[in-house]
Write a structure and sequence with these properties.
- By secondary structure, this protein is of the alpha/beta class.
- It has a single domain, classed as Rossmann fold.
- The protein is built from five helices and six strands; from the N terminus they run H-E-H-H-E-H-E-H-E-E-E.
- It has a two-stranded parallel sheet with strand order 1-2. A two-stranded parallel ribbon has the order 3-4. It has a two-stranded antiparallel ribbon with strand order 5-6.
- The longest helix has 22 residues.
């Protein structure tokens, strides 16, 4: 999904907002209304998302990226954070790949209420990594697929 998002943002000369939602509602209900590790979960997710975004920023230096990690219900948070977006990209879960008509709970919920155009991106069996960028003294020598260098 990140490959598609970065390529699309680069082609449109658009900024990219990466949003990850930590759904702690089930754990909060089990622990009596509060989740003692919610803050820790958000912090860990934020660090991981930052690391992934950094890898992709190197391959797409022209794409401005904002990373957001929020605690809440995924569909609600994604719809709310996409109100000013041109498009909302959602991943279709791995477990539904054997059933092409099944979208998954979050994409189905978002499609039902979003005013923003939604693109559901089917995930592959293997995750895509950021394209390799080989540089020397700040000069790009070679890039991986989907990346173009600036003159």
């Amino acid at each position: 999904m990140l490959a598609r998002a970065y390529v699309t943002a680069s082609a449109r000369h658009a900024a990219l907002r990466l949003v990850h939602v930590v759904d702690v509602s089930g754990r909060a209900a089990e622990s009596g209304g509060t989740d003692p590790v919610a803050g820790e979960s958000v912090g860990v997710a934020g660090r991981l998302l930052g690391e992934v975004a950094r890898d992709w920023r190197d391959a797409f230096p022209g794409v401005a990226v904002e990373t957001v990690v929020v605690e809440g219900h995924p569909a609600d948070v994604l719809v709310d954070t996409a109100t000013d977006a041109d498009v909302l990209m959602l991943a279709r879960p791995h477990r539904d790949l054997r059933h092409p008509v099944r979208l998954g709970r979050t994409p189905r919920a978002v499609l039902g209420v979003s005013d923003t155009p939604v693109e559901v991106v089917p995930l592959k069996d293997e995750p895509s990594t950021a394209p390799l960028v080989l540089e020397s003294s700040g000069d790009v020598l070679k890039t991986g697929p989907h990346h173009t260098t600036r003159p």
